[in-house]
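Filed under: proteins

Residues; backbone shape codes:
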Amino acid sequence: MMLALRPRAIAIPRARTSSRIALAARIRYYSVVANAPIPKKTKVWDSVDEAVKDVKSGDIILSGGFGLCGIPETLIAAMTRHPEVKGLTAVSNNAGAGDHGLVKLIKSGQLDKVMISYLGGNKYLESAYLNGDVGIELVPQGTLVARLHAHASGEPALYTPTGANTAVETGGIPIRYKPGGMKAGVLIPGNKKEAREFGGRRFILEPAIAGDVAFVHAWKADEVGNLVFRYTANNYNGVMARNAKLTIVEAEEIVPVGSLSPNAIHVPGVYVDRIVKATEPKAIEVVKLAPSKEEQTKEATPGESNDKAHHDWRHRIAKRAAREIGDGFYVNLGVGIPTLIPEHLDPSVKVWLESENGILGMGPYPTPDQVDADIINAGKETTTLLPGASCFDSAESFNMIRGGHMDVTCLGAMQVSQAGDIANFMIPGKLVKGIGGAMDLVSNPDKTKVIVTMQHVAKDGAPKIVKECSLPLTGARAVSLIVTDMAVFQVDRAAGQLLLTDIAEGVTLDELKAKTACDFQVSSHVATF
């Protein structure tokens, strides 16, 4: 028991000749537990198979991880040893790659549906979806984590600008085709969303996602369930741990109570029910390396930049796009051509690169001795961290993206319209890569400048700059600048018009008009690049 004294000022009624303020002490008694014992019921389980035994058919499983980083591989492997558990729905950023991750449960026939953001190169899942063998609900990456966070916070739904005026709003992306695939028709259509306007912007209502069971991978867990994640392995793990009715954690290290600093804990133990030892080795989806330490730290000279741009159309695009980025900018770069932009920045320009899986201050590719399975970029490639970098979870990442805290985002596209509409995530019935973070990245174009870098025409010669996009939209009236291997266009998103500002060397205006499927205005001074 502890005696607590708190002073309280008490006003004394004023007498005729004087006034006084008396200070009195109010005594309150608090019951304080000192040296709290560890509960006799432990959260640490010796057997992973016993830990997952309460997962039942039809459950919704939340599975942490991004690519192969931070995936609960030990728990997933244990589920495959319970083949009687079927009809599961899995919620995750993606469904793994190769033989790693949730694809194991798809191949074992235990998963009936996945709610994911991105398929990427998962050809097995893509084929299963297009053939009607499994259901896929594609959810924008930031929306996915926000819907999970909403339920964890006791909220039934949320409004978001991400996906407004796209197939996400209209329910135009089928969740499941009938057996036989697209030609047989749609078995389960997409979910149409309610829309409202706030402050002149369109928002859609997204329901919270509730999980029955969460599979979480942690770096460290103490015996009462406090969790610490390592670098980009945080991603979805934290929010999923907070969401589910039953949270099962696999930890690389299980440590005694008191071993973890309270300042270091990412998830308090109140959210965690069971802990097992992580035994499966970590995998890396894409190992990308710097040629050497010297090459890694070397800054590109203007001569090298010019040479690359002269011989490679991708570098020509990247070099021109780099001129739009100023010193101190916070920048998100998509996969493909945008990743080449840092090679062409002016030496005086220093930027902070954000990776949507949870890095601000991303560095170059690592040397072989720097490779770390817990430090990857949004393309699932190995990367490094610069001095001053920070790592955080997916909820934090997309809050800064949707909130317009990035100065510039650069990404590729399959089509861009003259009004700045962008389509870059799927070709219905043919190509399903997933939405990923693209819809979030283009959701606040008034605050974050959206630059598209792409080839001017598709492989079949079809123009990619069009009057109206025929492919499903990633965002409406979102793009401010288009940089191709042939030209640069400024986009007037309000008027729905293009202005030609730059033309590539060797390209004529007539050739450009022939390969552009919409009208455009020509600046009084057209530069070359």
Remarks:
- The chain has a mean pLDDT of 92.
- Residues 141-152 form the longest helix (12 residues).
- The CA atoms of residues 127 and 308 lie 37 Å apart.
- The longest strand covers residues 2-11.
